[in-house]
Amino acid sequence: MRVNPIRPARLGTIAVFALAGLLFWVSFSVSGGSNIRTDDSLLQMSDLIRERDRDNARLEADAAELRAEVDSLTKRESGADPAGSERLARAEHAAGLTELTGDALTVTLTDAPPDAVPLLPGIPDPLPNDLVIHQQDLQAVVNALWAGGAEGIQVMDQRLISTSAVRCVGNTLILQGQLYSPPYTVTAVGDRDALRAALDEDPVIQNYRAYVDAYGLGWKVEENEDLTLPAYSGSTALHYAGPTE
């Protein structure tokens, strides 16, 4: 008896159906029976970030209360030694662990409108990155204020200390475990003329202000009198890498 050979076209059809079945099986395995075309995973991630932010805020508040108790006990123990108590007070002041009051400058940086157009002739249309505040912009303001002799600096509602790091992810500021969105404020206590001169002379800020003129990024400098910066309330413990055993 003669057996008819399978034609190439039929082989191709069988291969297509087999591949389709494999794709359906892989899709079902990945999704676990759920709809993988929704944004539920992204929503769950944003909810998780907000939950962690709330947890961080609660833990920071608890830590601040414990540090206040430790400070009270430390001052009570050092009360018998006036010289030691004075040294402790000077160290806490220099470290940013006490309130600071004085004349100040407040710098506010804001994203440009998303539909911004060139404000000067001969300027090209902006790219998305041209319209938002970047980490280097905020860091330049902080660095310039320190260079101008600032006695203390506050970014948003937090006091900076020597280990503080200004970091941005996208257009979101992450500072000492807290998340912030623009507009961003940076406040420094010190000689206002010297602080303003330091801002004007900084080359990174000069570049930023060129974008202010070109596309409408926000830049505002305000003077304050007898403004009080809060004491730093976060952890002062240092975390560092170590060799593996």
What would you note in describing this structure?
With 245 residues, the chain is of the alpha+beta class. Helix content is 46%, strand content 18%. The protein has helices at residues 8-31, 40-78, 82-95, 135-147, 192-201, 203-215; strands at 100-110, 152-155, 158-159, 167-169, 172-175, 178-180, 184-189, 218-229. It has a five-stranded antiparallel β-sheet with strand order 3-2-7-1-8, covered by helices on one side. Helix 4 packs across helix 5. It is flat, with a radius of gyration of 29 Å. The termini are far apart. The model is unreliable at 34-39 (pLDDT under 50). It comes from Streptomyces carpaticus. Pfam families: DUF881. Belongs to the UPF0749 family.
Helix content: 40-55%
Could you say which overall geometry the principal axes of the C-alpha atoms support?
Answer: flat
Mean pLDDT figure? 81
Number of helices: 6
The ordered H/E elements are HHHEHEEEEEEHHE
Count of individual beta strands:
8
Distance from first to last alpha carbon: 75 Å
Q: What strand line-up does the widest sheet have?
A: 3-2-7-1-8
Please summarize the sheet with the most strands.
5 strands, antiparallel
Strand content: 15-25%
Stretches with pLDDT under 50, minimum 5 residues: 34-39
SS content category: alpha+beta
Spatial extent as radius of gyration = 29 Å
Keywords: Coiled coil
Organism: Streptomyces carpaticus
Protein name: DUF881 domain-containing protein
InterPro entries: DUF881
